[in-house]
């Protein structure tokens, strides 16, 4: 940058600025005139790229680079600041050159000049540059790599034109260049990383312009002075492979990722992650390369459907058995499509939506292990969409978001094996609308990460769903993965996420919101779990010996036990809430002498009012347990005239049913214990592997919740926004 020194006019009149000579006082008072102007450059290190730096003694030397133009300046950093050097001679301006130290000098070779690549060799002695002439050396190139090993500088690769890279190895001994011809060598590339470790030069990655997708490489090599040796470093799915083109599932103790780069016409790659490292599998057969397909795990096998290539949509069904892929031939099948979502419910898989032609559909297909069947459920059901994500929460398949028409959705829907039901959530706190998010269930808690909003911008937030409401845990994360198209799966008691360029793990560690110790000693998933839309969520939903057993009322190994279960002012009061051997048991729900016992059981204005709250020898006994005008009466406890009515108290198709059976805004709290839109709802609630079991109930919040990068791998690029 060049700055002019000129005139400064102030209240004192004319001031003479250094570098300018003022005219003698004029006889006229109308103006003053300059007789000479001198320009002086102010040294300024401006922003740039493609320069080269190396250390000589206790100074860092920088040369050249590309900014507003190609630079040929030399700078030194002494640990405090930069100083522009003014050597008697200097290499021509360039970017993409490389320097390395040898003895008491820095050696600079090549680079890209304003018009063409260069092949000159220069040495910097700390004061001046000197060109070494009369040499027979490497052909002109830029973005090569150079590193010092013992008494020589090793040069590898580089670009000779905009699209041509080489795999040459050269050595500089201080006097001459010598080309080496090792028995083995890395593939041609440029912009690789090189460093010296003990007696070896280590090379990693680079760019070759032809690797699938981005041209980025991820291999590791070492040079021992004689030959190159490829090293079996920790591997990861290539950084050019995007998670939007793949899906990830859990089989046994491994996460399985199937992925292929968009535009690749070969096969889909299969990778396994054991919690510490990735391993690429090489099956005898694989599905063709594709993007935007659906995949889920059923038992010990993986199921893959559809997707698209650059030229066609696919409708094939494949099965992964842990060793090989097999194409299946079902009697019926969804039409070819991309962007559908799929999840597992028991021994079946459900597939929803996708784009068969140019418009998304709202079809629901069910896979029974042999063939596909189209669901004919009447409305209401989800609108047509693509890019939604589904997960099994222990009771049903939950679908979140997706692209609907020209916008994205924030909806939640649940599939119970026969019908879709909209899942309501708090209008105060919920994830913004999105598509292509990561979604997985861990220990009864649904974890959501990222995705794309309506403007296709990446979202980096993390949310959990406890069966009743969403919790934004983004502020508690210790780090955030980079933007991408995340695919997630549960592995052990945590989450594994691959977003196309990075692998991350997530651990859920939760304590009560007041910071006290958790009095629930039961491990997660040690029960059947409270079902429905979230009936009795929290740490021990319905624990005890037989709480709410029967047609569907809040089953599990223990009903509302533990000292805090549904305690005090909230429904089913004090330490003995629903205690006893037969609380809400069988046809006479809440039977036995202890069912909802003691004078304060279910006391106060909330939940099942009255002095003896369903006390007596057969609390809630009879064909209409808790029925009649006062059955479960009070300001809100088990509201509606038939709360807990039916053949069995807390039984029937929806024990504790109604629009908000045992209603209230906060579960197990205040005047409405058993919160949620339908606590104890559904014919089979409290069944399944794990109902909301990660201490994330309405009165608890997670802590110690954070993403952890398992391995940070280079690069990744965005795929095109689809339709």
Number of strands: 52
State the end-to-end CA separation.
46 Å
Strand arrangement within the widest β-sheet reads 7-8-9-10
Shape: elongated
Question: Unreliable stretches, pLDDT < 50, 5 or more residues?
Answer: 1-30, 510-703, 711-723
Q: Which structural category do the helix and sheet elements fall into?
A: mainly beta
**Helix content estimate:** under 10%
Q: Sheet with the most strands? A: 4 strands, antiparallel
Classify the beta-strand content into a percent band.
Answer: 25-35%
What is the mean pLDDT? 71
* Total of helices: 0
Integer-rounded radius of gyration: 35 Å
Describe it for me?
There is one protein chain. With 723 residues, the protein is mostly beta strands. 0% of the residues lie in helices and 33% in strands. It contains no helices and 52 strands. The strands form 16 sheets. A four-stranded antiparallel sheet has the order 7-8-9-10, with no helix packed on it. A hairpin with a 2-residue loop joins strand 2 and strand 3.
Task: Please name the defining characteristics of this protein.
723 residues; 4-stranded antiparallel beta sheet; 52 strands; 0% helix; elongated; disordered N terminus; disordered C terminus
Brief write-up:
With 723 residues, the chain is mostly beta strands. The chain contains no helices and 52 strands.
Q: How would you summarize the topology of this molecule?
A:
Layout: E1 2-3, E2 8-10, E3 13-15, E4 20-22, E5 34-37, E6 40-41, E7 52-56, E8 59-66, E9 70-77, E10 82-84, E11 98-102, E12 105-112, E13 117-124, E14 129-132, E15 145-149, E16 152-156, E17 159-161, E18 164-165, E19 169-172, E20 177-180, E21 193-197, E22 200-207, E23 216-223, E24 228-231, E25 247-251, E26 254-259, E27 269-273, E28 278-281, E29 294-298, E30 301-308, E31 313-320, E32 325-328, E33 341-345, E34 348-352, E35 364-367, E36 372-374, E37 389-392, E38 397-400, E39 403-404, E40 407-408, E41 412-415, E42 420-422, E43 438-442, E44 445-449, E45 462-465, E46 470-472, E47 487-491, E48 494-498, E49 502-507, E50 510-512, E51 700-702, E52 706-712
Antiparallel strand pairs: 1-6, 2-3, 4-5, 7-8, 8-9, 9-10, 11-12, 12-13, 13-14, 15-16, 16-19, 17-18, 19-20, 21-22, 22-23, 23-24, 25-26, 26-27, 27-28, 29-30, 30-31, 31-32, 33-34, 34-35, 35-36, 37-38, 38-41, 39-40, 41-42, 43-44, 44-45, 45-46, 47-48, 48-49, 49-52, 50-51
